[in-house]
Amino acid sequence: MSTNTIKEKYGFIVLLDALGMRTSNMEDTINYLNRVKYLKILMDVSINKSQSTNKNLVGLKYSFFGDSILITCEIVDKKETKEYFAEVSYLITSVLAEALRQKILFRGALSIGNYIEESNIILGPAVVDAAIWHDRLDLFSVITTPSAFNKIRSFYSLNDPSFEETSLTFPIMKYKVPMKEGFLETYIYNWPMAIPTLIESFEKEIIGRDTLHWYFDKISRFYIPPGTENKYRNTEDFVRYSIKHKTNPT
Fold it and tell me: How many other C-beta atoms can be found within 10 angstroms of the C-beta atom of residue 2?
């Protein structure tokens, strides 16, 4: 690989990790692949729709490796950073809600920064930042890394002098996130607010069921091993918080 051909990129990196998924034998591997195919369909439709309306989003892509997903989005025009962020964020919330419907629990982190993408190789500071934080949270969702948190506040306030963090409730919201050690105040992806749309699209027979009942119905399918119960309790607390502070997604 010639250093003369390596192009440094700047953008969003999202690393998602499926908890409790076993792919050590072929039966479990096939089972996981059957669930993941629905996520791939959703992501392909969402990305194609975004790219059809904004040609600069050609750099929005994803890849699966093992039981993880890596989403990348190069920011071609920094003046449109908010628009890039919105598209990536709506994709994340949709994936998290659909994953739960498919009996997959993801946790992860979003970073913003420099990285290199060469063929199938993606590495750099932004990748490291997402990797360091993606498995630190003690619930099922996606957070912004501390560095990304500051950058997001910066570009929102620069574009909107009247910006107030409390006005952000979808697709992200500020939250005191339970971590493996203590708490982290940052942005968390408010995927429970995507549930009504998901019900409308895929489960019309249960329209009328509220978000909390839907969540209980899906989460009740999971066995909770000793030592993981706090993740489930913290996730329920977050879902309740999301519902209490909900606004209509726009």
Answer: 5
Strand-pair partners of 207 = 209
- The angle subtended at Cα 242 by Cα 239 and Cα 248, nearest 5°, is 130
Report helix, strand or coil for 70. strand
- Measure the CA–CA gap between 140 and 97, rounded to whole angstroms: 11
Mean pLDDT score of the chain: 87
Task: Give the per-residue pLDDT at 122.
Answer: 92
CA distance 69 to 17: 7
The domain over range 8-244 is classified in CATH as 3.30.70.1230: yes
Please give the average per-residue pLDDT across 118-122, as a whole number. 84
Q: Tell me how far apart the alpha carbons of residues 71 and 62 are, in angstroms, rounded to a whole number.
A: 4
pTM as predicted: 0.89
The pairing of beta strand 106-118 with beta strand 142-144: parallel
CA distance 209 to 216: 11
**Number of CB atoms found within 10 A of residue 230's CB:** 13
Q: Which amino acid is at 199?
A: I
Q: What letter would DSSP give residue 166?
A: G
The two structure tokens encoding residue 75: 């920011």
Is the pLDDT reported for residue 130 higher than 90? yes
For the record, the structure tokens of 171 come out as 């697709």
